[in-house]
Design a protein that fits this description.
The protein has 14 helices and 14 strands. The protein is α/β, with parallel strands linked by helices. The strands form 2 sheets. Strands 1, 4, 5, 6, 7, 8, 9, 10, 11, 12, 13 and 14 form a 12-stranded mixed beta sheet that branches. It has a two-stranded antiparallel ribbon with strand order 2-3.
């Protein structure tokens, strides 16, 4: 029997994974981390190198895992010329240092851009996903088909157990997704799959896939404009394209809004992040559409911050009034694309739940010192890190850019939620103290460069 079996059972079973933790959860998590490390150490080259250098031979306590958590920047540590010059085999060799299964045997003949590179890997059983790449450089993380299916299942679990109205109308509600039909981001395919199970017919806001190559090009152009290296002709072409894209995006949002308001007599499910919900509010007001556009039993799912979108301080309250729903009809959640499963926000408990297969770590700002209470109880503030026990294609240990307050002993077991709760979330980069590079990031990137001979 594997130490991981209880966690797969919690994901795939019928019970509520946020409210039915086994009493010995911390011990089970520790045993599962120990098993994962023993297995992955011989598969992931970067992990093996890091473990050897830090003298970690086994995981006997939570603190043993801290030096083995990967900084989030490591997944964009490849040289940019690999993409610029079409060195797809070299990019695959870089990915190999972070992957649990071989990717070097995938034929890259005829690959012309990064999306084709990802497509070719997918044909070989590697379901690589990327970040948004707003800085001009995407993260790439390898995953297996099982990872993809597990993310889908976690989305279903969040829907069913994160909101009683979704559970009440399981499989019946029209679903409105502020998403494209396909793309490089991890959650697009799983959310589309989960929507088919959670609701009835689905309506998408966007009609074109989100391509990694497009987001890379856009991010690089913005960077070139900012540093003055862009040619006037390039700036003009970029601006012309941006105007055309804005016009097309506006038309798609209008169509989505029209279809949504046409369903005001029935409860629907609307999925999107806060920035997209606010964009919809602004578009509706430009058109003179008044608040209260939906049935009062409508549920909206959301998460994340505004992602650069400008909005007033009370944007959440305005969004709720716009839809004409109650605050409890908002299914907010906390997580990230590197994580299998996000935790729902509870108004009663005033915190975000954490999936039982996600082991939370609170570190100091440098990412070196573990701040978790030794007895597993108490309120701690610091940098959020985690170990995802279900990660198959990649190492599950991540250090994020989030500053959080985690309650390891929520009083009264409010709302039935078990395990630690994330009380507050912010981004170090958005705070006055700013974001410093994680102390381990430079060392880990030097490991990667040595492994790919660059």
């Amino acid at each position: 029997m594997s130490a991981l079996d209880p966690f797969y059972a919690m994901l795939r079973g019928d019970a509520d994974p946020f409210r039915t933790h086994p009493k010995e959860l911390r011990e089970l998590q520790l045993a599962a981390m120990k098993e994962r490390f023993a297995e992955r150490r011989n598969q992931i080259r970067l992990l093996r190198r890091r473990a050897d250098d830090m003298g970690v031979e086994t995981i006997n306590r939570h603190a043993d895992m801290v030096p083995l958590l990967f900084a989030h920047q490591i997944y964009k540590s490849y040289p940019e010329q690999f993409i610029d010059n079409g060195r797809w085999k070299h990019l695959a060799a870089w990915l190999q240092t972070l992957s649990s299964a071989p990717v070097s045997d995938v034929d890259m003949t005829g690959v012309e851009d990064v999306d084709a590179w990802m497509g070719r890997l997918r044909e070989g059983g590697h379901y690589v996903f990327s970040s948004s790449g707003t800085s001009g450089k995407c993260s790439f993380i390898n995953q297996t088909r099982a990872d993809l299916e597990n993310v889908t299942e976690s989305c279903v679990k969040l829907g069913i157990h994160g909101n009683e109205l979704i559970r009440r109308d399981f499989g019946k509600r029209p679903v409105f997704l502020m998403m494209p039909p396909a793309g490089a981001h991890r959650h697009i395919e799983p959310v589309l799959g989960a929507a088919k199970r959670l609701g009835a017919e689905s309506t998408l806001m966007f009609d074109e896939p989100v391509l990694a190559s497009a987001t890379i090009s856009m991010g690089r152009m913005r960077r070139a404009i900012a540093d003055g290296s862009a040619k006037p002709s390039e700036v003009a072409a970029f601006q012309e394209h941006a105007v055309a894209r804005q016009r097309h995006t506006g038309a798609m949002i209008d169509s989505f809004l029209d279809k949504l308001t046409a369903q005001r007599d029935v409860p629907v499910l609307v999925q999107g992040n806060w920035s997209l919900h606010w964009t919809l509010v602004e578009r509706a007001r430009q058109r003179g559409i008044t608040d209260g556009i939906c049935h009062p039993d409508t549920v909206i799912t959301t998460g994340g911050g505004l992602k650069g979108t400008s909005a007033p301080a009370d944007y959440r309250e305005q969004i709720i009034r716009f839809y004409g729903i109650r605050p409890e009809n908002v299914q907010n959640s906390y997580g990230m694309s590197e994580m299998i499963g996000t935790g729902p926000w509870s108004e009663v408990a005033q915190g975000y739940a954490i999936c039982p297969w996600i082991v939370p770590f609170v570190l100091d700002k440098t990412g070196e010192q573990l701040l978790n209470p030794s007895d597993g109880r108490g309120l701690v503030e610091g940098r959020f890190a985690f170990f995802d026990l279900l990660a198959e294609g990649y190492w599950g240990g991540f250090i994020t850019g989030d500053k959080v307050t985690v309650d390891f002993s929520p009083a009264g077991n409010t709302d039935g939620l078990q395990g630690p709760l994330v009380r507050q979330v912010g981004r170090y980069a958005d705070l006055e103290e700013g974001e410093d590079k994680l102390s381990c990031a430079g060392t880990m990137e030097s490991y990667v460069r040595g492994m790919i001979n660059v």
